[in-house]
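[Discussion] Sanity-checking designs against the backbone

I'm trying to build intuition for which residues belong where. Below is a structure token string of 108 positions. I'd appreciate it if someone posts a full sequence so I can compare it with mine line by line.
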């Protein structure tokens, strides 16, 4: 990819404030923690630690903490939006089906 650079500090803040495209926040393993639809919302993270932004001088694609100590979990990144897992009625998840049948037959 041509023209991709890394930005830090005030330069990174200025680009994010002007940017209208979303920006991703990566964890220390390179996985996406959260994506901000408005890049200026990610500026709050820059105050909490040393971050590096990767992209062009017009658009930062993602930001990442410089070290594990600077890594801050962004608000909302730890929320799981998946529906809750339902337990089957009358069965314990640790109890196999055949054991349950034996218990029911013994009670009858």
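Best answer:
Here's mine. Compare freely.
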């Amino acid at each position: 990819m041509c023209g991709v650079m890394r930005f830090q500090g005030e330069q990174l803040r200025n680009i994010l404030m002007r940017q209208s495209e979303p920006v991703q926040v990566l964890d220390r393993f390179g996985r996406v923690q959260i994506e901000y639809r408005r890049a200026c919302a990610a500026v709050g993270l820059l105050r909490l630690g040393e971050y590096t932004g990767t992209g062009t001088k017009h658009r930062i694609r993602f930001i990442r903490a410089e070290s594990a100590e600077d890594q801050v979990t962004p608000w909302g990144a730890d929320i799981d939006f998946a529906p809750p897992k339902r337990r089957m009625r009358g069965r314990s998840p640790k109890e196999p089906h055949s054991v349950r049948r034996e218990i029911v037959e013994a009670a009858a």
